[in-house]
Design goal:
Blueprint (H helix, E strand, L loop, with lengths): L3 H10 L5 H4 L3 H14 L7 E7 L5 E7 L2 E3 L2 E7 L3 H8 L2 E8 L4 E11 L2 H8 L4 H9 L9 H14 L11 E15 L7 E8 L2 E6 L3
Antiparallel strand pairs: 1-2, 1-5, 3-4, 4-7, 5-6, 6-7, 7-8, 8-9
Helix pairs in contact: 6-7
Length: 213
Amino acid sequence: MNDPMHMLRRAATAHTLLEESAGNDPFALFETWVADARTGEEEEPTACSLATVREDGGPAVRMVLLKALEDSAFVFYTPSSGRKGRELALRPQAALCFFWHEMHRQVRVEGEVSVVPGAIADEYFATRSRESQIGAWASPQSQVLPDRGTLDERVTHWTKKFEGGDVPRPDTWRGFALHPKRIEFWQGRESRLHDRLLFEENGDDWTRVRLAP
């Protein structure tokens, strides 16, 4: 039987994060780490926690999937009418945290958020499965439902509504781009002496410093 603690210690020593290998481009390093996660044993390489600010000023966090890294921005999609969308509209600032357990790595991203142009959102929406497209119309995200049957009825309604044709993107289903100001790369090591490299935006460039674990 595998020893979970032994496996964790092995993961913590399999990689290191040194300045000379990290380079000066945080986006290139991020793409390398995602590629490593894809070829490894990570089930959801692009899964990340998204933290926003509630209307009362408190924190809120949930898991989302990163759908693109475009023009130096991290892109995800969600209804603007849902809780995430409402919170981002009120305060367009957010943080993402990626964690890859098998490689004992995480990346923290903090910055400002903007809405992705509709044409780009349309293009991505068209790549989703038809069932997911129907689901975007059927689910009044974050609203209270009386029971599961109500959601099933909405799915049936919109399935019939678009039968025989393409499913368009709902106006409220949008893409959001997080433009980072800070990106921290964390590599686990034994004895909790982890490697931490922080990149901070400095005009058109990025500064890089090492943080104590």
